[in-house]
Specification:
This protein is of the alpha+beta class. The protein is built from 4 helices and 7 strands; from the N terminus they run E-H-H-E-E-E-H-E-H-E-E. A hairpin with a 2-residue loop joins strand 2 and strand 3. The longest helix is centred in the middle third of the chain and has 15 residues. The model has no long low-confidence stretch (mean pLDDT 95). It binds coenzyme A (COA).
Length: 140
């Protein structure tokens, strides 16, 4: 695999947005991505393949010991090859280094997060679209 995982930088905002805008979720804005990259307490990662961003994860510190994952996104043609797993593993490593003990997410992709030990704790019916957002939580 030639893919590389790195922190996202401000020049990546447009390219990450080009992946997220396909999900029709109004919360996914360029301002959100910019904020997650600029804020030193947040974590924004990218995976590149020959210089092209193929996957990204963005999460924000919520208080001293918790993170909220805003997005984990992989371009359609690169899915089911382990890129989301790479992003999640790197995220957990960095979040632990920053002192996180708890992680939450709201996501339509319940199965992915169950693979990483998250439990469903709530559900927002048809939130920002046709799909339910599942609120999930785990300790790290
Ligand atoms: C969900 C998503 C990030 C998965 O990315 P991916 O690179 O295909 O995932 P991976 O190949 O790394 O798979 C990781 C694990 O989750 C599982 N998985 C991934 N997508 C899954 C799905 N749709 N249903 C069931 N299991 C799934 C894989 O089998 C794998 O498990 P394993 O490692 O135990 O074998 C990708 O489909 C995506 O970008 N979806 C749209 C964006 C979205 O809605 N994101 C959630 C918002 S937070």
């Amino acid at each position: 695999m030639t893919a590389k995982i790195q922190p996202a930088i401000i020049e990546d905002v447009e390219e990450i947005y080009s992946i997220l805008k396909g999900f029709n979720r109004p919360a996914y804005t360029k301002d959100l991505i910019t904020d997650l990259i600029n804020n030193k307490d947040s974590i924004c990662l990218k995976i590149t393949d020959n210089g092209k961003i193929i996957a990204s994860l963005g999460a924000r510190a919520e208080g001293r010991d918790a993170f909220w994952i805003y997005f984990v996104a992989v371009r359609i043609e690169y899915r089911r090859k382990g890129y989301a797993r790479q992003l999640m593993e790197k995220f957990f490593e960095e979040a632990k280094n920053k002192g996180a003990k708890r992680v939450a997410v709201d996501t339509p992709e319940k199965e992915l997060f169950e693979r990483f030990g998250f439990m469903e704790v709530g559900r927002l019916p048809k939130w920002q679209g046709e799909r339910d957002q599942i609120i999930m939580f785990r300790e790290i």
